[in-house]
Amino acid sequence: MAKRSQGINTLCAHAGELEDKQFKGAVSPLYMSTSYAFEDVEVKRYPRYFNTPNQQALAQKIAALEHGEAALIFGSGMAAVSSSLLAFLHKGDHVVLQKTLYGGTSNLVTEEFKKFGIDFTFARDLSAEAFEKEIRKNTKGIYIETPSNPLLSITDIKAIAGLAKKHGLVSMIDNTFASPVNQNPIDMGIDVVIHSATKYMGGHSDILAGAVVSSEEKIDTIFQLAKNFGGSLSDYTVWLLERSIKTMGLRVKAQNENAGRMAEFLEQHELVEKVYYPGLKSHPDHELAKSQMKGFGGMLSFELKGLDSAIFMKYLKLIKPSMSLAGVESTILSPAKTSHALLSPEEREEQGIKDGLLRFSVGIEEPEDLIADIEEALEETRKDMVDVRI
Ligand SMILES: *Cc1c(COP(=O)(O)O)cnc(C)c1O
User: Fold this and answer.
1) What is the pLDDT of residues 372-388, one digit of tens each?
2) How far apart are CA 86 and CA 60, in angstroms?
3) What is the per-residue pLDDT for 165?
4) Which residues does the record list as N6-(pyridoxal phosphate)lysine (modified residue) (predicted)?
């Protein structure tokens, strides 16, 4: 009989848990040892080898959540991104990447790859044709991120996975914005799924971590490089991350729901110019998002109509200005001033990132309270702007 696969909240709560054989405690015991016996044992355990009991248990949980065979846990999302890319790209190789990538990933590629003799091209747009056009004889990998930051554009995961298979390339995706609750790229043919666990997996703005999920074989390739680079996560934080993930399904579903409500509220508001949210019918990639996502996520962006977004942000009380995202608390930022400040104004313009654009990471608060906060801040900002004009 085929094994019944469990649902997301069951996997979040139970997959990979360690049994407390000694005391029968309810949660995974925490093993902090950096030194393990090496005689008469099968596995030589050491935290930097990614094989302590807690690391292996959490890797099992995350692999189950992403429907992959195996996983590795890292000290940051960027350690997961860099280890994955550098494991499959060697001197003389070429990689095609999506243009609208997380800032740290763009920096890694543009600032470091030359040093390693790795060539790269950013595809002109998100279409599979644009990616295919850039494939050369020495291309070895293809790298995407969807939904993208900050405009929540959607890349066709199946089309990219198919393209990679056709040309014998390793396909990689940064699945951070969707989280495994909303999107499982391995089911669509992607080889390597990367997460900044700092975001939805951690979910409480208090953990820096990363994860990679793939086949046993590809995880071993990444492991061979990663053990030398030394980016593993402390077992204490591994344990804390396991605890956080237990509620990830509940949190992310609440955030999906809230973000949908916020997007609809903002879209009909007379002081809002434009809302970017894949769950809105007005989003150009709505149908594609519907076909590959189980939920539309907790991130959205918007532009105000004739109001100064910096003043608006100052009037928000509940929604806090913050660099990071995906916590249970709602946060907001100006991409032009923070995450995309390093781009030139022309590059931002080209990517459609207006100076007044605001990126909203929607938390788990009651939607009515979030709406009240936004309404008050919009009203105060409008009054200010009128005063300035007088
Ligand atoms: C935050 C983030 C990263 C980097 O993760 P860190 O944990 O900060 O190293 C990578 N990709 C995306 C989409 C992110 O949001």
Assistant:
1) 999 999 999 999 887 76
2) 23
3) 98
4) 199
The closest residue, in CA terms, to atom 2 on ligand 1 is: 196
The answer to whether 240 touches 73, Cβ cutoff 8 Å, is: no
Q: Is the CB of 183 under 6 A from ligand 1?
A: no
pLDDT in the model for residue 146: 98
Which parts of the chain have pLDDT scores under 70? 1-2, 388-390
Q: Rounded CA gap, 198 and 128, in Å?
A: 29
Active-site residue 48, yes or no? yes
Exposed e or buried b for every residue in 102-126, given b needs 16+ CB within 10 A? beebbebbeeebeeeebbbbbbeeb
Q: Which CATH architecture has domain 15-245?
A: 3-Layer(aba) Sandwich (3.40)
β-strand pairing of 210-214 with 331-333: unpaired
Give the C-alpha separation, 30 to 55, whole Å: 10
Q: What is the reported pTM?
A: 0.96
> What is the predicted pLDDT for the residue at 38?
87
Q: What is the 3-state secondary structure (H, E, C) of 258-285?
A: HHHHHHHHHHCCCCEEEEECCCCCCCCC
Interval 272-281: pLDDT, tens? 999 999 999 9
Report whether residue 179 contacts ligand 1, using a CB cutoff of 6 Å. Answer: no
Rounded to the nearest whole angstrom, what is the distance from the C-alpha of residue 263 to the centroid of ligand 1? 24
CATH fold of the domain at 249-389: Aspartate Aminotransferase, domain 1 (3.90.1150)
pLDDT reported for residue 386: 76
Name the residue ranges covered by the structural domains of the chain.
15-245, 249-389
Do 15-245 and 249-389 come out as alike in CATH topology? no
